[in-house]
Amino acid sequence: MRRWRRTLRSGLFWTALGLGAATISYALNMDVAARSLGFDRSLASIFLALVPIPALALGVHGLALSMRLRAASLLADRTADYLNEHLPEGYVVVPHYGPRDDGEDEVAMVVIGPPGVVVVEPHDEQGEVLCHQDHWYRKQKFGLGRRLPGMSPSRRARWNAARVRTDITSGGLVRTPVEPLVVFTSAILGDVTSSSVPALAGMDAMVARLVNIRTDAGAARMRAPADALAEPVRLAVV
């Protein structure tokens, strides 16, 4: 949640800097600028035209990235609201969890319940998605389409689960199971058998999975460490 705001500010800064440089370049007297730079007039024109481009490129990239991060943040909020409404009593849903590894990327969602801890990676892709050895694609009429942008959803879920597991282990709950899960809230799943992480389609399927997860430790045995973990996780988010 914090990252998209920082990225937006950075994008706005670089965009403003690029526009300012472009304005100054446009307003300069080209003969004076050429003499100052020691170039001939045509070379000075090219140089001054190129000056704003790096800042503008950084600005546009930052703005586009901030919009993607904001969309992911809002998706995490919507998914958390749905889980809070549909999960039975005994579950704690923590969106925007900030691991203690000082990494910039947050964990979209951690669900703590009687079976243990589940790290959920939600995605809001449209259409049909396929997975080939942890590479995810949108399906098109004649085969695979473009790869989904950013890190592979299954790899990100596995990585975030490892980060959460490290935090749990450091808190003394060594035997608490942590399971990664990828959820596509709008897409249809095609062949995803080569995904290293369980993948589901739809909010209802996610709720059913969270409720019906079975681990080696019984639900009654896992309730105590899950309840003990809930309060530190909340504090980590603040």
Describe the secondary-structure layout.
Blueprint: H1 2-27, H2 30-37, H3 41-50, H4 53-86, E1 92-97, E2 107-113, E3 116-123, E4 128-132, E5 135-140, E6 143-147, H5 153-170, E7 178-184, E8 188-189, E9 199-201, H6 203-212, H7 219-237
Parallel strand pairs: 3-7, 4-8, 7-9
Antiparallel strand pairs: 1-2, 2-3, 4-5, 5-6
Helix pairs in contact: 1-4, 2-3
Structure commentary:
- With 238 residues, the chain is an alpha/beta fold.
- The chain has two domains: 1-69; 87-237, Trna Endonuclease, Chain: A, domain 1 (3-Layer(aba) Sandwich), CATH 3.40.1350.
- It has seven helices and nine strands.
- A five-stranded mixed beta sheet has the order 1-2-3-7-9. Strands 6-5-4-8 form a four-stranded mixed beta sheet, with no helix packed on it.
- Strand 2 and strand 3 (116-123) form a beta hairpin.
- The longest helix is centred in the first third of the chain and has 34 residues, at 53-86.
- It starts with a helix and ends with a helix.
- The model is unreliable at 215-222 and 224-238 (pLDDT under 50).
Give keywords:
238 residues; alpha/beta; Trna Endonuclease, Chain: A, domain 1; 2 domains; 5-stranded mixed beta sheet; 4-stranded mixed beta sheet; 53% helix; elongated; disordered C terminus
Would you kindly provide a brief summary of this structure?
The protein is α/β, with parallel strands linked by helices.
